[in-house]
Design brief:
- By secondary structure, this protein is mainly α.
- It is built from 5 helices and no strands.
- The radius of gyration is 20 Å and the shape is elongated.
């Protein structure tokens, strides 16, 4: 079941402020991914126009589209985690009694936090080791390809930790 956490009542005070901040951060990621999708459509339009009308194929489109797809994918995954709409197979867990369900949900959340930490750490390592390698035809460094991995890792940790905290504060969810 897809749901949007923003529709639920939020706490007041610091927890509510953090929840609203994370919602806005997810909205910003969603908006940015949408803009990148429109840009992707535009540059592929330019590719088709250049190839078939101008008979001069723009060679930079492939490299630019690869970077854009990586950003859209990772930002979209982070938004899906925040809004609890990410792909998951939970019908077995949800069919269990409350205690095993809670334990499996906790294990899943802790695994996601560990995975997000690993993504952020390795992504940052890739960013730092590729600062001086150029992407052919674009003039950008290879770090631009690795940055979404680090960003999504941090966002995953933040979003899952907030979800874990919210469930701890309001048992039964």
């Amino acid at each position: 079941m897809l749901k949007d956490n923003r529709l639920e009542d939020r706490e007041s005070g610091l927890p509510g402020l953090v929840e609203r901040f994370l919602d806005r951060l997810a909205d910003l990621c969603h908006w940015f991914a949408g803009v990148l999708l429109v840009l992707l459509i535009g540059i592929f339009g330019w590719l088709v126009y250049g190839r078939y009308v101008l008979n001069d194929t723009p060679t930079w489109v492939e490299q630019a589209s690869l970077i854009i797809v990586v950003y859209v994918t990772f930002l979209g995954a982070a938004v899906g985690i925040r809004r609890d709409a990410h792909l998951s197979i939970d019908f077995i867990r949800e069919a269990m009694p409350p205690l095993p369900r809670a334990v499996l949900r906790l294990v899943s959340d802790l695994a996601m936090i560990a995975f997000g930490c690993f993504m952020a750490w390795q992504g940052w390592h890739l960013v730092m080791t590729n600062l001086h390698r150029k992407i052919p035809l674009l003039g950008l460094t290879e770090s631009w390809r690795a940055a979404p991995l680090a960003i999504c890792g941090v966002l995953t940790v933040l979003f899952v930790a907030a979800s874990l905290y919210r469930r701890w504060r309001t048992p039964g969810r």
